[in-house]
């Protein structure tokens, strides 16, 4: 049955959650369950299988995490719940959410498991005991093949973002894991869409599931200009400092993820001459109210806040919201930037996005149905111009000061005694006044001062790495439909002798480089090496990161191959004695071929 449920009339107390979880939810600042939470939590607590169709950012993590925690037996050391995620970033995010929700559960442990992490670290975590496992399909299957993962006490399996796992070629791995799990557990499947392969999995493995479909209507205020800066080169604090110097703002809220970050960032900004204060859940009500009053009255220019601490905050002076840390929840982003642009006023929102967080940016844009504009950091010349203008204004305001004649006499005496001009004295005084904040900032290796590298970074998207304008490929088309996209061929130091398949290569590159798998071109696998085609223009930082990526527990040592190098490599390979199995190839977005025994493999 399909439910389009509204949660306005329900509270978390109406969802049959234990009191310990209700207390945690209240402390985290959640007031009412989202529609997906209101519809799925009661069914999961009853033990029913569930299919939840909802976009990222609608509160899906709490929808399955809270029911799982409601049934956790903290005394047992074997996993009781298994959550499958398409990427390591999502696995870490879900693990952190479990840890937050389980604040009142003694001896609770959650372990993220994903490719690229040291296997020994994961084995030690499993040996210590863990109640919830959150991981990517390939690495979870590795542990099951090694028999290092005991699922005998498993009561819940969650497939999070199932359509994304299908798109990344993990469908066979997911089914292999489901076949290895005990038969008496419940399954929750969450997916933004329901393509036929996902529907087939649901029909095969779920028993009489409750189906919930949530239509999102999250939008942002049209009065708010939205921008993002792709974190690169300069660290975030330096970038924030530049923005604060150049932007014209009255009051600002800077959002971070943790309470400690509010205090740390406020102290760092104060040390740089800004007026900032933290706002977090550890502050008592009196201190919170005093901080907000200082912001309202202009005694503070900015507050550094967490999502929980800023709930219900309405200060007319707030003209800017800056997301120093990108929120994990799309709706949290909407709530954050909603602190500005109220009552018909205009506002501006800025979002810092690390390279690995671009997927979250795309999710926010999809949820809000609005494109966020990329911005460039203010240049060194912008800083010089701004500081110079402020200096001139300060000097001009001081010309009409009282007792000016006293200082004029001192300057005249200095000029006579030292035989120097008034201009020299004025320049020396300006230096003394500005030496702690020089009008000429020191030159540094900023992204805005490296045009060639910045150009390469901007070009490294499939939409820009091309000869002509192309539509957004999305997830529906492959590179074969757009031959205009310029590709480069790379060599990887893993091959057939290392039991590698295209799936492992696609997973590693998609996770490490945040390159959509539909933009990974042809893969050829030979005895001692493989080749892969990727969009041209890869920035050096990303190239160096990929060189260190491991596949099958081996560094791939990525190398660029020009046309002659590629032909030579393949010619040398063909000189070796023939083998029965031919080089495997992988066309974009096609899953791997025949099923094999992947025992001992390290999948990303």
From TrEMBL:
It comes from Teredinibacter turnerae (strain ATCC 39867 / T7901). It catalyses: ATP + H2O = ADP + phosphate + H(+). SMART domains: DEXDc, HELICc. Belongs to the DEAD box helicase family. DeaD/CsdA subfamily. Its EC number is 3.6.4.13. Residues 438-469 have a biased composition (Basic and acidic residues). This is ATP-dependent RNA helicase DeaD. The lineage of its organism: Bacteria, Pseudomonadati, Pseudomonadota, Gammaproteobacteria, Cellvibrionales. Residues 223-384 form the Helicase C-terminal domain. One of its GO terms (biological process) is cellular response to cold.
